[in-house]
Predict the 3D structure of the following.
Amino acid sequence: MRAVSQRTWGGPEVLEVVEVRRPEAGPGEVLVRVTAAGVNPADWKIRSGAVRKGAEPPLTLGLDVAGVVEAVGDGVVGFRVGDGVFGSTFPPNGAYAEFVAVPHERLALVPVGLDFVQAAALPTAALTAWQPLVRVAGVGEGQRVLVHAAAGGVGHLAVQIAKARGAHVIGTARAVKHAFLRELGADELVDYTRDDFAEVVRDVDVVLDPIAGDYGPRSLRTLKPGGLLIDVRGTGPDRTEVRALAEERGLRFVQFGFMPSGADLAEIAASGVRAVVDEVLPLEDAAKAHALSETGRVAGKIVLALRGEIAM
């Protein structure tokens, strides 16, 4: 089968399409014939070597997969050959390939009305937004939620999730993205290039922060007593300062990493949350997709499409 592989850490240019052995479905696994693969910032961080998840080159990237069940391994229930599925997988056997074997508990059925490209855009970003807002914060009616990088992959989904649960949603984004975010349900928007959100936003119950760094300590200033800051950046900046400040001020701080969950993905899809896809590129353009993602200027998600038929 064809797959996008890299033989060394580096820039987008290290990605190349190669022929590799097609995997088989082991016990508890589903072999997925890939139709689309989502692109996430984690992909290029892994590609560069900045984030290493225990896999060394050569490896195939791609955390988000959508496609059709080709085969099922022993012990798999709930999936049959021909089903449309989407979910999470990890390098070295990632989603940038024509086939991938995925543990069945990480997959969900693609619901009617959701095409494969939209489905492939959801898993990592949607779980990174939904699990902390719902499972950790329990966001509900009347709460004030601040979402940083609100037009990004995680942010634009967090806006929808918080709004659907009855929250008043505030987002930080460049002014050019404000109309896009209002359509998704944002109630207030702050242009971070013009205004310091820490000076103009107050009385927030929950902050969802995919940026970290100095955004952490500054976000604490927006919270009401007992408020919660959830850092979903992953690896990167040191959080010692923000932890200490939160404890000192009687605020809560959680550093959160998503957990693959087909059950959560099914609930997310059923809720009507939809990923906005900014760009769809062929598998061969994985390097271009990474270069676009690294600009930080994408509204929504980038998806690699492997086959012409993308609708269920």
In short: DSSP finds ten helices and 16 strands in the chain. The two ends are 23 Å apart (CA to CA).
